[in-house]
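lol forgot to send this yesterday, sorry. struct tokens for the thing we talked abt
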């Protein structure tokens, strides 16, 4: 009596898919260089520009800390945003335009495994990217890294929740570009605007009030603020408009965007091109 072989579990297929996604990612050398180098380069530029009075970006920033120390949290947050939201929104749109998603949908692989593969790829790349950024910050710019378990615990949940939110929102936003060719033109300006208004490139408290209100709606501001609570001294929370790190609000807003991205993604995700039915 013959039996039909059982397919591997969705989780196992997802792990296999993650390996494929990572292999594909690291073969795209230009994307790899951009993802890993961008936060480091921007940290170096802004630390040098604003800290021109000191060596290696050591000029006095808010509260007397170095500008490199102040900008590091924002670069960590923007690195996560690039790896998750921007990278996925563009790459999925390109895969859809090339017909890759349509072909994958025709295989026995569950859709869940495909998305688990994307999540695994983003998580691994984000860990490597952040580790590289922290290493450069500590070794080149003499940035003090946290020493307490509570700080690293905060880092862990902000990192994981921020990565999950960026990933889910990136998948949802991938439905917006009409073609793979237009994906970068549609997605990149959104990320750039959020970087400028979310306290990544400038001291958030120095931005106009209306700009702060707009930034508070979106995840990047809260990711950057959460990371500031990790890498800046405790008294630095007085520099925030609310006078506190607002960890509760950070968790709620990132969680809300996670849910919104999931709902929108389920409703709008397309495996075929817009002109393919």
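and heres what i got for the seq, position by position
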């Amino acid at each position: 009596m013959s039996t039909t072989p059982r397919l591997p579990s969705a989780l196992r297929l997802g792990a296999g898919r993650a390996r494929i996604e990572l292999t594909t990612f690291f073969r795209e050398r230009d994307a790899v260089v951009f993802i890993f180098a961008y936060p480091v380069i921007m940290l170096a530029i802004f630390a040098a520009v604003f800290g021109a009075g000191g060596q290696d970006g050591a000029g006095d920033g808010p509260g007397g800390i170095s500008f490199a120390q102040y900008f590091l949290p924002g670069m960590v947050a923007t690195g996560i945003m690039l790896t998750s939201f921007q990278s996925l929104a563009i790459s999925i749109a390109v895969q859809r335009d090339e017909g890759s998603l349509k072909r994958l949908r025709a295989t026995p692989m569950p859709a869940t495994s495909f998305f688990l593969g994307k999540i695994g790829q983003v998580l691994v790349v984000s860990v490597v990217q952040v580790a590289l950024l922290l290493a450069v910050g500590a070794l080149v710019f003499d940035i003090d890294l946290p020493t307490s378990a509570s700080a690293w615990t905060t880092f862990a949940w902000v990192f994981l929740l921020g990565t999950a939110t960026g990933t889910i929102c990136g998948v949802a936003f991938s439905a917006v570009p009409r073609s793979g060719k237009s994906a970068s033109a549609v997605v990149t300006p959104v990320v750039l605007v959020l970087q400028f208004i979310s306290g990544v490139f400038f001291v958030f408290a120095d931005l106009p009030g209306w700009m702060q209100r707009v930034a508070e709606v979106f995840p990047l501001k809260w990711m950057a603020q959460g990371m500031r609570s990790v890498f800046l001294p405790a008294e630095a929370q007085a520099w925030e408009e609310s006078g506190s790190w607002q960890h509760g609000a950070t968790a709620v807003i990132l969680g809300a965007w996670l849910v919104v991205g999931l709902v929108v993604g389920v409703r709008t995700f397309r495996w075929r091109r817009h002109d393919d039915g």
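The longest helix spans residues 67-98. anyway ping me if u want another try
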